[in-house]
Amino acid sequence: MLGPQSMGYDRTSIMYSPEGRIIQTEYARESVRRGSIAIGIKSKKGVVLAGLLRVVDLNEPDKKIHKISENIHAIFAGVAADGRILISRSRLEAEIFRLTYGTQIDIVGLAIKTGDYVQLFTQQGGLRPFGVGILFGGLDDTGPCLQFVDPGGSVASCKAKAMGEGDSEAIAFLKEKYKDELTIDELVEIAKEAIRKAARDAEVDEANIAIEIIPYKG
Amino acid sequence: MNNMNLNNMQNGPVIEAKHGTTTVALRFKDGVVVAADKRASMGTFIASKKTEKIHDLNKYTIATIAGLVSDAQYLVNLTKANINLYELGRGYPPTTKMIGNLLASVMYEQYRAYFPYYVSMLACGLDKEGPHVFTLDMAGGITDEDFASTGSGSMIAYGVLDSTWKEDLTKDAALKIGLTALKTAISRDTATGDGMDVAVVDKKGIKRLTAEQVKAVLEE
Question: pLDDT tens for residues B186-214?
Fold first, then answer.
């Protein structure tokens, strides 16, 4: 009996395998796992995004955290080129919302818009799903908010999230440390420590951790 | 903003529109009072005596309409649909400010396409920032006011509102001012009349006043 791979079900995202899986999307999730680690964590006191900067040769490290609008930042892990497109797309969606409704976009709304776009690439022929997981963090009328969009286009509301190389170690650490009442300083410490856990035994230089701290007063 | 002369329209049809109306809205300390008459006129003819000019958009936002009835009803329905889609996707509703700006965006787009909606609306309600009275004109302009009036009798209503409105009114005082303004418009404008619809928006949501309650306020 031939497996689903050898039957060619993994060659396109627009075809299910007989078990009902979309194998291309699963491969896309693997490419997120190859990216450098990205962490998001929130409590009632705010949101913290943090990521490990990967230095290639003599390049300046890539920017890991991107500002989307006045109230929202994003961090992604995975294929940098794909992430760049999603960042500009979400900036565009934020501006469209601001022009239409006269206020800054809410984070759930932004994640849904971005998720809608990402999902298109799993159902249309000739397209490759995005090889990135993206986290949107910031403040809106609902308070601190952290939203995750995966390569399949699904949107999840998170208390804490880790994606990229070493994510299982980081998630295990976050699960152990997470409480609803964490202060901003504790969030920062936990995020940095989660990155070190993800790096396993490798030395992590403080200068190679990108961090965005978004405190909530209210 | 309130004088819509459809006969000046260069390329479109000349419509005898139902557009005699007076609607008023004013802020008070913790909410908004909104009142409108019930008459729809076509020139000197009274086309309807029971027109609904105050529409609930969601739990904390209402709109009043003046101008071409079909355009106004369509805009109200479209906005309600957009509000529902917004809330269903997120689990929380848009604010009054967002609803006002959404209406303005839709009206501006249509104005720029040379076929504006012939309406003048008020979007009123209560959100995190406090009470709002937004005026919306057919070109897509939007302003946040303390009080506002639209329709053929608005000049008359503004006379009362301008001379009596002040900051931090109680609900009862605001009701008295709003209803007096509308009553004055009804008594001097031929295109305004046939009773009043009155609604109050506060923390508890939207509450409509019965005819008896309206009468009681005016007789106080």
Answer: 999 999 999 999 999 999 999 999 999 99
Average pLDDT over residues B60-71: 94
* Domain membership flag for residue A84: yes
Does residue A48 sit in helix, strand or coil?
strand
Residue-number span of the structural domain to which A73 is assigned: 33-50+64-214
Q: Can you say how many angstroms the Cα of residue B171 is from the centroid of all Cα atoms in its chain?
A: 18
B88 touches chain A (CB under 8 A): no
Domain harbouring A180, CATH code: 3.60.20.10
Per-position b or e across A68-77, b if 16+ CB within 10 A of its CB: bbebbbbbbb
ipTM of the prediction greater than 0.90, yes or no: no
Known catalytic residues of B are 21
Q: Do B90 and A109 touch (CB under 8 A)?
A: yes
The 10 Å Cβ neighbour count of residue B121 is 30
pTM value?
0.83
Domains, in order of start, for chain B: 16-219 (3.60.20.10)
Q: What is the pLDDT of residues A70-126, one digit of tens each?
A: 999 999 999 999 999 999 999 999 999 999 999 999 999 999 999 999 999 999 989
B99 Cα to chain A: minimum distance (Å): 7
Is B105's CB within 8 Å of A109's CB? no
Residue of chain B whose Cα is closest to the Cα of A99: B105
B89, B94, B128: residue with CB nearest A101: B94
Domain assignment present for A109: yes
What is the token pair recorded at B30?
Answer: 């913790």
Contact A112 B101 (CB under 8 A): no
Cβ atoms < 10 Å from Cβ of A201: 5
Nearest-CA distance B186 → chain A (Å):
35
Question: Token pair for residue B116?
Answer: 């504006």
Is residue A7 a part of any domain in this protein?
A: no
Residue A22 in any domain: the answer is: no
* Residue A112 C-alpha, separation from nearest chain B C-alpha, in angstroms: 8
